[in-house]
Amino acid sequence: MRIPILKLYNCLLVSIQWELDDQTALQFQEDLLQKIHETGANGVVIDLTSIDFIDSFIAKVLGDVIDMSNLMGAKVVITGIQPAVAITLIELGIGLTNVLTAIDLEKGLEKLQQELGE
Amino acid sequence: MTIQSCVTIINEWDIVAARQLGRNVAKELGFGTVDQARITTAISELARNIYLYAGKGQICIDKLYENGKPGVKISAIDSGPGISDIRQVMEDGFSTSGGLGAGLPGVKRLMDQFAIESIPGDGTQIIATKWLR
């Protein structure tokens, strides 16, 4: 199943609603970059509110897609990381440093607008 | 007393099946959301290692009861190429697959007990346990 990517003005909105398997995660990576290319969006918010765990593979795919989006000229903000996810990621040794984050979708969109200077 | 169920790991979908099994067992035993995430993540790392490095193996989940205290035991067993330098794979950031190198040292931090045995050419067995606090 593919993760839907919605366009809102100059931004793309993604809400990951179910547990990611490897294929879905890699497909999402491609789909997001393609959508950035098609729409010329300069910002992306990825909401992880419904995600209850992230392993090192998913973290790598997420970190990579953020770097890839940056290369293309789009900034990415990750929102809604649950307490359990934050704890396990840090214990795993994955800080996702240099990643823009916000507590929820609303704050994420605000942060994105600030970053884009709009 | 132990009650065991196993998932054979051959493809990526089996990784999902193994961690769902582990999460269900953790939930049944009364682990909170943070420990459920720790256990699920640890299983995912171990199952992915089997898939990536051994090609085939098994993840078994045991419910343990020690002095009335429940726990979850994860066993990851494969007959893959084995690990020649265990100290090296337990170092943060070491990876031969282009991953983050967070796997095994990460699993050790997420769980309460961690034991690894590996014979090059013969296979690897990792046992990790988490006790309900």
TrEMBL record, chain A:
Classification via PROSITE patterns: STAS
Signal peptide residues on this chain, from the entry's feature table: none
SUPFAM superfamilies recorded: SpoIIaa-like
Domain STAS positions: 1-112
InterPro entries: Bact_StressResp_Reg (IPR051932), STAS_dom (IPR002645), STAS_dom_sf (IPR036513)
Name of the protein this chain belongs to: RsbT antagonist protein RsbS
Automatic annotation (TrEMBL), chain B:
Annotated ranges, domain Histidine kinase/HSP90-like ATPase: 35-129
Record bears the keyword Cytoplasm: no
A molecular function (GO) term: kinase activity
Keyword Protein biosynthesis: no
Alphabetical keyword list: Kinase, Transferase
Protein name in the entry: Serine/threonine-protein kinase RsbT
Organism: Mesobacillus persicus
